[in-house]
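Section 3.1 - Work completed
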Amino acid sequence: MPARPLPRTPSRPLVRRRPLTRPLVRRAVVVALAAASLAGLMTGPARAGSDGGVGDGGPVDRELQRRLQAFVDTPGGPPGAIAVLNTGRHSEVYRAGTAEVGTGRPPRTTDHMRIASVAKAFSGAVALHLADRGRISLDDTLGRWLPRLPAAWHRVTVAQLLDHTSGLPDYTESPTFIAEFAADPRRRFDSRTLLRYVAGEPLRFRPGSAYRYSNSDNIAVALIAEAATGTRYEQLLDEIVYRPLGLRATSLPQGYRLPRPYLHGYAVDPPNPPEDLSTAISASGVWASGGIVSTPGDLGAFIRAWAGGRGLGPAVRHRQLTFVAGSSEPAGPGRNWAGLGLFAYRTRCGTVYGHTGNFPGYTQLAAATEDGRRSLTVSLTSQVNSVTNPRLLAALRVLQEDFVCRLLKRPKPHGA
């Protein structure tokens, strides 16, 4: 799998701003926008169900279970966490803390949650499916499909959008967008016009010459998919991803509500008690870049198919697995490399492929082996990134790598 190093331009999260009202909610919104900076027709049998099609085997590695609990118990740690390892034949489910503060209810594989920027893998799945079927080319430009966007952006290609080498300015860093979102976190944005917030800005660099994670990239991918097919992006997700994989608990809402049952997501700011953000924020402001709601069971089924290249022909699969140096946001375990809607996480125990994400109240990792047979999802009920808590993020990445080692049945965890 070829990899080419590219210069990395700064990808700093948005600066914390003084809250207006409801302090934790608005502060979490502003921080999150930065941190989030917030499949081909997948045929063949898919096992989603309540646990990705397999029984809940519970924790097997007691040391990993202990360390997940210790992570939750860390000052500033998330109120709850759930990690699901699936080998197709059996699963191991590790949980700590609670799905809802004050109830004692443990997180479950059927709980809904915001998957944040893991939604970018879904837009990658739609785009590569269309490319594999000849509906678009990965070398098509923004100018061909979206000619009303600024002329300076027209030479950017679909592939450059998918591996974040486009140079598009990130709309979530727009002061106007930040102010509107912070003023009313439940505001219903017109998702298809989000790029207007940066329409007056030039490209940050020549397309293909550097790497910089941008939420604008996947908004543009979804708009190209709509332009090429005449079909709404939500319907494309249903036809190309959800139905073929049996993802009955996955959706792309526009509002702020979550289907029940759900993992409650929190702003954690000791010594204050956790504040529930689960339904405080509208998904319309992130849309194809981070608005999808799913469950650990569904997410595991998706990432096995997507990382495994299910339904993709050799040419498109080769492009999917052509990597440049670049980390997901937040960074995942090991050394990170960026492909088309997919990151390679090269750990001491081997390489897995997937995506991370974070959103107010949630932090996610979904990854699988290249053959799509084994998957790992790690979901937290608070936002952990380099801005909110860099030390906790460093500890999380170590823990994620140890879960990868367990998935690949390699050496014992660092803490064992």
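Second construct:
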Amino acid sequence: MKIVIFGLTISSSWGNGHATLWRGLCKHLARSGHSVVFFERDVPYYASARDLHELAGGQLRLFSNWDDVLPLARSDLRDADVAIVTSYCPDAIAATELTLSEGRALPVFYDLDTPVTLAKLLAGGAVPYIGPRGLRDFALVLSFTGGPRICNEFRDRLGACNVRPLYGHVDTDIHRPVPSQSHYRAHLSYLGTYSQDRQRALEALFVEPARARQDLRFLIGGAQYPEDFPWSPNIYFVQHLPPSEHASFFASSRLTLNVTRRAMAEMGWCPSGRLFEAAACKAPLLSDDWPGIDEFFAPGHEILIARDEKDALPALTTADAELQHIAARAYERTMDQHTSDKRAGELISLLEQAASLGARRQQPEEA
């Protein structure tokens, strides 16, 4: 199967959650014998922090503007089986129009930012990566978020006819148990790009516990943190960690924190890839609470849940043996359900089902 993807970025993991997800999926799609071509606009924002230059088993098409790459995109689509357009792709609407006009590849939309998309729609704003016909022309709409609302929202607001969740995952070639490193050691760590809509939860679950426990070491890794972030002397900072450093970061943490963006937490059923990455490194997890989290990890058994500082502080005093038991259970769950190879298999199955459904709909009715 040849799959052409029009995405935000796969070449740079700086400041976005798309790249590592696509890298894991594309790697395992290629290992299963599928061909992947990824179109990415080459913007300075990502070019300055590019940490992938070739797509193993596939082709990375970097381009400066859509008009220049149009002939190549058209050529790739003419022998493609599937074309996937993603949220936040800067050329999403043009790529959608091209895919539909060529008429050969199965048209698929993958929203890796579902709660953000729906929040814009509910506020009456425009969604720059969805055209005026909504999602009605796609044979399959994939959503990073699941739960009971998604199908209805995408169908009623955007005309989607076939909506299925495709959750985050972890590439176990990169995220795995490794020895701890002294410069990453912390009683509580947090890995994530700065986001204003996570700030309130981050302050409650990380900053306030750090202020209350000056005897403990806290560590943040990520990009785009402002100068006025409420640091304290026992909070240490590592600016932007490439995926190759994630395993050491997580493995050096006595406990690591997951904080979900507000729109995702409110909607629920939207596990961050960081959850699976940390679990794959056998790091004990502390997470904010949101609807559906128990479908991915069992609270109190595979993950600790904190709703405010009063929950976070006791988690810091959990016995080492109990934390290791929690981490071991989360690791087993992740290896069984949430790896990139398993998600790639789910993707292929969903594509085959959508293609089969489309073929049946096109068959003429018997007289």
